[in-house]
Structures are given as structure tokens and as C-alpha cells.
Specification:
Shape: globular
Strand order of the largest sheet: 17-18-19-20-21-22-23-26-27
Number of helices: 10
Structural class: mainly beta
Largest sheet: 9 strands, antiparallel
Distance between the termini: 52 Å
Radius of gyration: 30 Å
Number of strands: 27
Strand content: 35-45%
Length: about 550
């Protein structure tokens, strides 16, 4: 617990008696080489199932902490992943990676195109859409955690629908360190707006070599997202749904009313001042119930807690097509209830519609000479919740610092307010005589924008493209896109009074609406050729965008 001499305790959490027993770890070092004995630079070394990972240095060496019984996973593009169990005797590892010939022929998404893995020299990470979907998360970034070495993903807060802070290999700029998101070939998208079930794959370009084509805006890395595309064959309908419940793992132990009064008296004793005469601040029956322990007082944080908060997701996808025309469409709904909110609704919901199709106009044997397609995505979100700002505008902080002597309701079943506070005890100011800032934080929450707010957002993204390939290795691609977004925010402040510093004398409604759009086009011409044993991929292009 923390308190201030001569004042009211600033944090009213009692010391916890629980202990956490941490499994002892040991430092594991090693060297990673290929079949020829050459050191492998930039190989991913991670303790399986955790975010504890490193990459090998210029000498192929690594060092990390791991507990006996865990498994170290070593992976690198073009090589088979190896798993090594950690024992008490494990110390210096000498690892030889074997080539994965099948993996080397697979393609990875890079800037403005794809390449075979064996030709990629930059540092990239690929996560399949199936791996994202099976995590059963609301946000794709949450599913990326533990699956993308070198990428630090941290939730901005515990508020439903709130975003994530993503950092790829440290800060690349002095300002914003977020990477750029490229969704279906269009830069500047919002990955949090996507339904994880709509994602085909996510590719992360981690170093300057792989992301340089996007210029200065890619200083912090690039995350490429490809949504599900149509497949040739019979029409297939799939449904993916889940429902779960969330709870706070451990709540802090808050002071009871009896403990609070004991702390206050101890503060006075330490300062050489007489103990408080609590009858001046509390009615006799309430004071007696606090002192004998029959009434523990108000645990404000527990009142804000929302037990068994529901999270659910439902998606229906339809794919199919012929050799010349194929499509993929999907509808999704996600909902997440907040673990804190109490009487205030704190939740997030998202509805999405996706339509992707591709059509071949001219085909000559195995060569698709002319084809075109589109990717259309619509998303609607709605969210509301408690304040999550700094200590001066944070609902959880307010509840943790609130006084347990203040009841939630008065004898009439109404929220305890200013009139009830000054009516307590024999003193002229009642509980406010103890401290002028004492309040009923739930009264504040229910009558201000802290608890009376709602946001609605609409986003539309439409992409059209055409590909012309007169020769096998020569391809032109033209792409045009249009994106529109609109948002509406409403908040209400009611009339209430806790004390002279915490009150509203007028009720009013805040409303804010925004709308914006942007469009752009991209033209690229690529040509691939071989000169003896050397392979070349040449790409030239131009891009134009406009924002309003």
C-alpha cells in the first residue's frame, strides 16, 4: 500500500500475499550453419510457444534464455524447421539446417509482386491465413503474436476493439514507429478492420532490402496482407464460429473500510496527531458496521469488473469458379465484451462483407494473356467503453483510488452524491470534512462521457485491376482503388454533483461526425529473364494517390 503523510492514501491496494514461482531458466548458446558449413545469418531462434526469440548474428551465433523441458525452434527461409528439446545438460548447440526444396519453390509476397522463396534475400516472415483464423481472435494482429519473430506486437490497452502497437526490429524513425500496411496491393490500410477469417496470408518485410521499394514510408517495415481469393472447382461453403468468455486473471486486493480507517489513524499517529473521530464523518450505524467488519465497505474496482465477458466470432465464406472465372466472398460478425465496465457498457462489434473475383478474358494454353478482377471490402464497427487515458482520465485508476467508506447507493436506492456525503456523521461537512475530493466515482462514470459514449465507423475499400501478359515473362498490371470512411461519435454529460470539484450543472450532448475518401492508381511493368546462371527480375512502375 502507498500513502501520503497527513493526507488520504493515493492507492488503496493492500499488499498481496500470493507468490509466483518462476521456473528457473538457463542461457543457451549455439551456432546455426547450412549443409555446406556456412554460417546462417538471420535465422529465427525461438522458444516454441512463447515470444522469447532471437535471430542469429553475422557469425550464425545466438544466445537466449530457456527453461529445461522447453523446445527451441530454429527456422529460416528455404530450410526445414528444426526443434531441439532443452535439458539440464543443454548448453552450446551446433545446428545444421537442411534445405527444404519444396519450400524453396513456394512464392512469398514482396513489394508489388511475388517471388520464389529461394530468390528472396531480404528478411521476411510469412504467416498463413489458417494460422491466423484458428487463433480465434478479434484482431489479426493478436493472432500474429508468437508467430512473427522480430516483430513486437503489444495491445494498446485492454479496451475491446482497441488497436495494437507494432514494432519491427526496433524504431526506424524518431516519430511514429508503426509499419505500413499494404492490403491487397494498396498501402495505408487498417489491418484492425479486417476479419481474421478473410485473410489468406500475411507477409512481414522486416529489413530495408525487402521494404525499400515502398520508400521512406516503409522505414519501420511493411506488413502485406492478402485476403482470400477465388479457387477453381465446385462451389464450397464454409462456416467458422466460436464463442468464449474472458475474465481478469487476478484482481488487486483493495483495502476494506476498516483497514482504511486503521491506515488513516496510523498516519496521524506517525505524525503525532490524535486519531480521527470517525463519528464526525460517518453515521453511527454505518460506522459500527465498518468497525465490526459486517460491512467491508465499497470495493469500487470490483464494481467495475465484468465477469465472464463474452467474445464471439462468426464467418461464412463461399468460394468456387471455373478455369476462366473464380470468386470468393465472405460475411463476418465479431463481438467482444469488456472485462471492465460494470454498469457501463464496454464492448466492440464488427460486421464485414468481402467480395473478390478474377476473370480471364484471353487465354492461350497456359498463358493468361488478359485478366481482370476486383477486391471489395466493407466494414462497420461500433464500440463504446470506459476512459483509458492517463491517471487523470482513467476509469480504472479512479476506482482504485476511490474511498471505500463511501457507499454506492443511499437509503432510497439512488446513487450516493453530494447531499448524502455531507449528511453523514455529526460534522458539518460529513465525509467531505475528511477530504474535499471524496466522491462516488460511479456517479461520475454514469453521468459523464467516461461512461456515456458511442462510436460508429463505416469503411469501404474497392480495388480493380487488370493484368496483360503478352509474353511468358513480361507482365503489365494496372490497378485503381477507392476508399471511403465515415465515423460518428456521441457522448452525453448529465447533471450530477459529488463535490465542488466534481459536478455538472448542465446536461449536454457532444456529437462529432467525419467523412473522408481517397483514391489512387498503380501501373507496373515487370520482366523476368536469365543470363547464364543469373536470374533477373526487373520492375518499373508509377503510383498516384489523392486524399480528401
Amino acid at each position: 500500500m502507498a500513502f501520503q503523510l497527513g493526507g488520504i492514501p493515493q492507492m488503496l491496494a493492500a499488499p498481496s500475499t500470493s507468490m509466483e514461482v518462476m521456473q528457473q531458466t538457463k542461457r543457451i548458446t549455439g551456432t546455426v550453419k547450412d549443409a555446406t558449413g556456412m554460417e546462417v545469418i538471420g535465422a529465427n531462434v525461438i522458444v516454441k510457444g512463447t515470444t522469447n526469440g532471437v535471430i542469429t548474428d553475422l557469425d550464425g551465433k545466438f544466445s537466449l534464455e530457456a527453461a529445461p523441458g522447453s523446445i527451441i525452434e530454429i527456422s529460416y527461409i528455404g530450410y526445414m524447421t528444426q526443434e531441439i528439446p532443452v535439458t539440464a545438460q543443454t548448453s552450446d548447440l551446433q545446428i545444421t539446417l537442411k534445405e527444404d526444396s519444396q519450400s524453396l519453390d513456394e512464392v512469398v509476397v514482396v513489394g508489388y509482386g511475388v517471388q520464389k522463396k529461394k530468390l528472396v534475400t531480404g528478411a521476411t516472415v510469412e504467416v498463413k491465413g489458417d494460422e491466423v483464423a484458428k487463433r480465434n481472435t478479434i484482431s489479426p494482429l493478436s493472432a500474429l503474436q508468437n508467430q512473427s519473430p522480430g516483430v513486437n506486437i503489444v495491445a494498446s490497452s485492454g479496451q475491446p476493439g482497441d488497436g495494437f502497437k507494432v514494432n519491427i526490429r526496433g524504431a526506424g524513425t524518431n516519430g511514429d514507429t508503426a509499419p505500413i500496411y499494404v492490403i491487397d496491393g494498396v498501402a495505408g490500410g487498417d489491418i484492425n478492420s479486417l476479419n481474421p477469417a478473410d485473410i489468406e496470408r500475411i507477409d512481414v518485410l522486416k529489413d530495408a532490402a525487402s521494404s525499400a521499394i515502398y520508400g521512406a514510408r516503409a522505414a519501420n517495415g511493411v506488413i502485406l496482407v492478402t485476403t482470400k481469393q477465388g479457387k477453381e472447382g465446385k462451389v464450397q461453403v464454409s462456416y467458422d464460429g466460436n464463442i468464449g468468455w474472458q475474465n481478469v486473471v487476478k484482481m488487486p486486493d483493495m483495502l476494506t473500510a476498516k483497514e482504511y480507517m486503521a491506515v488513516q489513524d496510523q498516519i496521524n499517529f506517525n505524525a503525532g496527531v490524535s486519531p480521527f473521530n470517525w463519528s464526525q464523518y460517518l453515521d453511527a450505524d454505518l460506522l459500527e458496521s465498518y468497525q465490526n467488519g459486517s460491512n467491508p465497505g465499497t470495493n469500487w474496482l470490483e464494481l467495475l469488473r465484468n465477469k465472464n465477458a463474452i467474445t464471439t466470432s462468426h464467418s461464412v465464406n463461399v468460394t468456387g469458379g471455373s478455369e476462366l472465372s473464380k470468386f470468393s466472398t465472405g460475411v463476418g460478425y465479431q463481438y467482444q465484451d469488456g472485462i471492465f465496465g460494470g454498469p457501463v457498457k464496454s464492448d466492440y462489434s464488427r460486421f464485414t462483407i468481402r467480395l473478390n473475383s478474377e476473370h480471364i478474358l484471353w487465354k492461350n494454353k497456359d498463358l493468361d494473356i488478359i485478366k481482370f478482377g476486383e477486391n471489395v471490402y466493407y466494414q462497420h464497427t461500433s464500440n463504446q467503453g470506459i476512459q483509458i487515458g492517463n491517471q487523470y482520465s482513467n476509469s480504472i485508476y479512479s476506482m482504485m483510488g476511490a474511498n471505500p467508506l463511501v457507499p454506492l447507493y443511499n437509503s432510497q436506492g439512488e446513487l450516493f452524491d453530494y447531499d448524502d456525503l455531507i449528511a453523514q456523521g455529526s460534522g458539518s461537512m460529513g465525509l467531505l470534512g475528511l477530504n474535499q475530493y471524496i466522491n462516488n466515482p460511479m456517479n461520475t462514470l454514469l453521468n459523464t462521457t467516461s461512461g456515456n459514449n458511442k462510436s460508429r465507423n463505416h469503411n469501404l475499400s474497392a480495388i480493380g485491376y487488370i493484368e496483360i501478359q503478352p509474353l511468358k515473362d513480361l507482365k503489365y498490371k494496372g490497378q485503381v482503388y477507392y476508399k471511403q470512411n465515415s465515423s460518428l461519435y456521441k457522448a452525453y454529460n448529465g447533471i450530477y454533483k459529488n463535490n465542488n470539484n466534481d459536478q455538472n450543472t448542465d446536461d449536454y450532448l457532444d456529437e462529432n461526425m467525419t467523412i473522408g475518401w481517397n483514391w489512387g492508381m498503380t501501373h507496373t511493368l515487370s520482366y523476368a529473364f536469365d543470363v547464364k546462371e543469373n536470374h533477373f527480375d526487373v520492375l518499373v512502375g508509377t503510383e498516384y494517390s489523392r486524399v480528401r
